[in-house]
Amino acid sequence: MHRETLQRYMNYLLLLTKLKNEGRATVTSDELAVREGVTGSRVRQDLSALRILGKPRQGYRIADLEILISSMLDILSAKPVALVGIGNLGRALVLSDIWSHAGFDLVALFDNDPALIGASVAGLPVRDAATMERFIQEQGIESACLALPADKAQAVVDRLVDAGVRALWNFALIDLDVPAGIIVENQRLEQGLMALSFRIAKRNQDDARSSQD
Amino acid sequence: MHRETLQRYMNYLLLLTKLKNEGRATVTSDELAVREGVTGSRVRQDLSALRILGKPRQGYRIADLEILISSMLDILSAKPVALVGIGNLGRALVLSDIWSHAGFDLVALFDNDPALIGASVAGLPVRDAATMERFIQEQGIESACLALPADKAQAVVDRLVDAGVRALWNFALIDLDVPAGIIVENQRLEQGLMALSFRIAKRNQDDARSSQD
DNA sequence: CCGCTCTCGGTACCCGGTTATCGATTCTAC
DNA sequence: GTAGAATCGATAACCGGGTACCGAGAGCGG
Lengths: 213, 213
Hints:
The structure is a homodimer.
Chain A lengths: L2 H19 L4 E2 L1 H8 L3 H10 L10 E2 H12 L5 E6 L3 H8 L2 H4 L2 E8 L8 E2 L2 E5 L3 H8 L3 E4 L3 H14 L3 E4 L12 E4 L2 H24 L1
Parallel strand pairs in A: 3-4, 3-7, 4-6, 7-8, 8-9
Antiparallel strand pairs in A: 1-2, 5-6
The structure holds a DNA duplex.
């Protein structure tokens, strides 16, 4: 499945939640389509791929869609995940509610700053990074989030992988080197900002062109 | 230009910086291609679109590529940008060095928490959000970053747009409602985490299947 | 009860992004 | 200087995601 398609499914899910909160029980393909900037055909194909059936003149049952898309994304489970690096970004992530929404259960925080170890963030204790491998092995944690500087990331990843972690959500601006089979999802914040810069430049060009005509 | 293409250009740029740091002066299309997971053909077409010329048996001059890609993304400029919301996420963004790398100059921080107003983060004072419109108008700021809760985002956006902001980098989990012509780049952190969840589920399925054979 | 409309499900088509191919060019080696 | 290898630039072929279209089924109105 391609990135665009996956993103469409996630957006469907967000829209469905919104519609459900508005009291809706069903939704038509065209409704989802216009909000996503695609055609009803595309939406119907997407849903058909999940073996979701709708009814003519009625649409799709929102509850069905939510369950099937959620299960495809496997966000109904609660995979334990550890967060390494309790800086500002780390704290922001701990305090957010994205973990459960995406099928994860944040169970451990690690840092190597003595000033932080022992403190508590959102009810979770900050543990000494020196105890990281042991905790991860004992708890069978297979996912980890890296919220630390680029120069420290690779060393931590090596330790995590040795301890059994097989999936990484990486905020460090670095291409991590991992063995085959280990998943790395890079969250490149700066790419969003670069994309914004490009879009601004493009709009300014277009504006200049159209005013010239 | 499509999102994938834009992302490729950004990745080229990151790779080029890395290669330059390694002392390289030129790079071949195939080298860039393998690191991007595409073919040399695609890379040559991308670069050709920017009117970049290479030399047979030698490749492309890294310095040329950097300048031309950077100027296409308009990240050589220093567009002033304001950051609203000095929570953990906001502080993390202030302390990062992504702004200059993406063609922005972070010039103002705003929050409405009296405990924060007047404090200084990375040398920048936190200003009272009540003074936001005036400052933005006076300084001619046209870009802003939203690092605040979803329920407060829309109201702030309305004020920012009224004050002259025309481009937004939004971290709040909400679909902002803006007039036509205003650019909104949403940085949906949870989508990255959902994508990770999906990739884990897919790998586990694949593993189960292959061990079954 | 009978048409009418709306929306789904499936199929065919289209378009653009990606790859493959080939001639042209430049550097290396002898 | 010439042969050969490597790499570019351009074009053609391919492929898959997206759209358009059409027949089928479900509700609505008279």
